[in-house]
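Notes for week 9. Today we move from apo structures to complexes. The key idea is that a small molecule is not decoration. When we ask for a structure prediction with zinc ion present, the ligand SMILES becomes part of the input, just like the chain. The input block below holds both the sequence and the ligand string. Read it once before you look at the output, and try to guess where the molecule might sit.
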Amino acid sequence: MTRVDEAYCQSCQYQHIGEPPTKCPRCGGNAWALLTSVATVSVLGGDPPTIVVSQPLARDWYDDARREAGDSSIEARRREILFAVCLAECYLVDWVRDHVANADSATMQRYMGAGDMVRRRWTETPERLAAAGLIRAVPSIDAELRERWDALLTFRNALAHGRTSWPWEVGRLSTISALTLLDLERMGPGAALEVVLRLIRAFHTAGGVALPEWIRRDDCVEQPLVWPKA
Ligand SMILES: [Zn+2]
């Protein structure tokens, strides 16, 4: 169980450090927003102040994908695909929040779009950031990386949405976009993570901004993509 570092009363914004009591000592309310060690808190002006909470998870997804990339089993590929795409999803959100929007949700929406899917975001958000002069240029994604990124998203969606559990007729597989165990076996350990790391590196190189310190040194340079074409 994750340790609660602090709590805020949902009614009066009373701040309590550590596990909160049942009732708020200020207003008697019993609904708390619980913050863990991964949460960041911004307290904006006003009376009572507006408290904005966010939980940056890109680093955690990176650690998860990196761990699975060290395992050559098919089961590890399944998890690495999910974790790598989660890294891609959270990475842009974390970056825009920390470097552009701070705690302002309207600014978040301006660059991330509302309810945008990760595929569109990795195209449109860098364009919006570059147009606003917040990064130097739009990252250039070559055809191979674009193809692998599309395939990775197809695989992730097949795994996450149960497409892989649908019955399918042998010999007619090409007529549906299913992911088979063969596809997972073909993808080498670390390939899914490397696709996402290439996106992130391209974003930072084109944008003229440094990579975060938590990316391992050997992940800062291009690695071979162990993912032969079908
Ligand atoms: Zn209260």
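The CA atoms of residues 135 and 209 lie 7 Å apart.
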